[in-house]
Design brief:
binds zinc ion, 238 residues, 8 helices, single chain, alpha/beta, Rossmann fold
């Protein structure tokens, strides 16, 4: 039997079982085991793991842990210098988060019928960040971009994602359909009149249409609430 000691960064502590937090974790294991495997056996997906060191030396996730190793595990740092816009695929339980992110104009694929295999495939082939609360899903070896949502609340989840991927600078409200993710197009009021309620007809002149699902959008009270939320997120994250 071999033994290795793991020191987890404070950001990763909440992902450990209660009895293992706030102290070095001693792991006993047999045979050749990668550091990825041992960390994931404690419940932390590799997508949450940042820089790793064994006995002070930088190592990768495929490092084979040796008897007596002291492993230091840092968390992934927020993507502060992202120069390209992040795109996402969300697992089937995250419909509300998908709407929130689309409301901010962010590109999010979501269907409540997605199976695990499809999610993994889309993330890898389309270069999309996989958002989920399912740790096992993120433990698929091929997943390189993913984030384990901590909260069950969709607004808190939105904060988490905006913070982790530094999304404030990519926010473009009123640009993407909340139902289907398609970019919206400006549309003349006359051409959508029959879809509008009397008060909407009376008070609003600026409309957008989703060419994919025909949903009409205007800057009504929901738009004001959306701007408030965006402002709040922007202030809290920066
Ligand atoms: Zn649509």
């Amino acid at each position: 039997m071999k033994v290795a000691r793991f020191d987890f960064a404070s950001d990763l502590q909440p992902l450990l079982k209660r009895g293992l937090r706030d102290q070095p974790v001693e792991m006993r294991f047999q045979g050749p085991q990668s550091v990825k495997h041992l960390i994931e056996s404690l419940g932390i997906p590799h997508t949450e793991v940042g820089p790793l060191r064994a006995n002070g030396e930088r190592i990768g996730l495929d490092y084979i842990v040796q008897d007596g190793d002291r492993i230091e595990v840092r968390a992934v740092a927020p993507a502060a210098d992202n120069t390209t816009e992040s795109r996402f695929v969300l697992d089937g339980h995250l419909g509300r988060l998908a709407s929130h992110l689309r409301m901010l104009g962010l590109d999010c694929l979501y269907q409540n019928g997605y199976e695990d295999k499809e999610l993994v495939c889309i993330s890898v082939e389309d270069g999309r960040i996989l958002l989920t609360r399912d740790r096992l899903l993120l433990m698929h070896k091929v997943i390189s971009q993913g984030y384990l949502l901590r909260s069950l609340n969709s607004t808190e989840q939105l904060y988490e994602v905006v913070q982790r991927y530094w999304l404030v600078k990519w926010v473009r409200p009123f640009e993407r359909c909340m139902n289907c993710n398609h970019p919206l197009e400006p549309v003349r009021k006359e051409s959508v009149l029959e879809k509008l309620e009397p008060l909407t007809k009376k008070y609003y002149d600026d409309f957008k249409l989703c060419p994919a699902c025909n949903q009409v959008y205007w800057k009504g009270s929901h738009y004001e609430r959306m701007l408030e939320l965006i402002e709040q997120v922007s202030q809290d994250v920066q």
